[in-house]
């Protein structure tokens, strides 16, 4: 298996949306990916296996209380390719970008019921820092954090 992590290209949008729709009960509309990409082409990265697009991560660098922080906005790996290290590789690429942008920490929100994702994030060094009530409308978010050192 040849895994590559590379920058998103507009021609990837159909595959990204397909994975998004099959991964979430409240998927982002396709234009949300294009909007973030056009705002900052560095914010979306995709994973390919033997040339096939199998996952993506969206990360932003924001200013919070006067310091730069990374914020993971979306992450998914196609179902048949999960548990092979692709999520970890996408998050490593996102963390490298965040660090190169001058931030030393990354934050994210995850649905409280998404125990797989919470386990995944803990396995790559994130810790649970709190909860945002009603973040998803129908559910609370668990806020997770990682110091990139
Ligand atoms: C969360 C997600 C991105 C993880 O991607 P992945 O490519 O399967 O993750 P990896 O293979 O890199 O897993 C790294 C580690 O995370 C943990 N992990 C991942 N999936 C797990 C699962 N189903 N059960 C338990 N631990 C799991 C393990 O420790 C794993 O290491 P191991 O396989 O050596 O034991 C993937 O499950 C996914 O796309 N889920 C649906 C979308 C989603 O929930 N996104 C997150 C929204 S906040």
UniProtKB/TrEMBL annotation:
It comes from the Archaea. InterPro entries: AcTrfase_RimI/Ard1, Acyl_CoA_acyltransferase, Ard1-like, GNAT_dom. The keyword Transferase applies. This is Ribosomal-protein-alanine N-acetyltransferase. One of its GO terms (cellular component) is NatA complex. Pfam families: Acetyltransf_1. GO terms for molecular function: protein-N-terminal amino-acid acetyltransferase activity. SUPFAM superfamilies: Acyl-CoA N-acyltransferases (Nat). Keywords: Acyltransferase, Transferase. Gene3D superfamilies: 3.40.630.30. Residues 3-149 form the N-acetyltransferase domain.
């Amino acid at each position: 298996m040849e895994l590559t992590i590379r920058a998103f290209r507009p021609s990837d949008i159909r595959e990204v949306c397909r994975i998004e729709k099959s991964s979430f009960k409240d998927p982002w509309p396709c234009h949300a990916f294009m909007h973030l990409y056009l705002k900052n082409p560095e914010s979306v990265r995709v994973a390919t296996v033997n040339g096939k697009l199998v996952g993506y991560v969206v990360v932003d660098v924001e200013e919070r209380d006067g310091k730069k922080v990374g914020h993971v906005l979306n992450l998914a790996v196609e179902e048949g390719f999960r548990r092979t290290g692709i999520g970890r590789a996408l998050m490593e690429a996102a963390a490298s970008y965040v660090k190169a942008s001058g931030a030393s920490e990354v934050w994210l929100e995850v649905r409280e019921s998404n125990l797989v994702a919470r386990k995944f994030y803990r396995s790559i060094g994130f810790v649970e820092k709190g909860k945002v009530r009603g973040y998803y409308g129908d559910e609370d978010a668990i806020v997770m954090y990682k110091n990139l050192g």
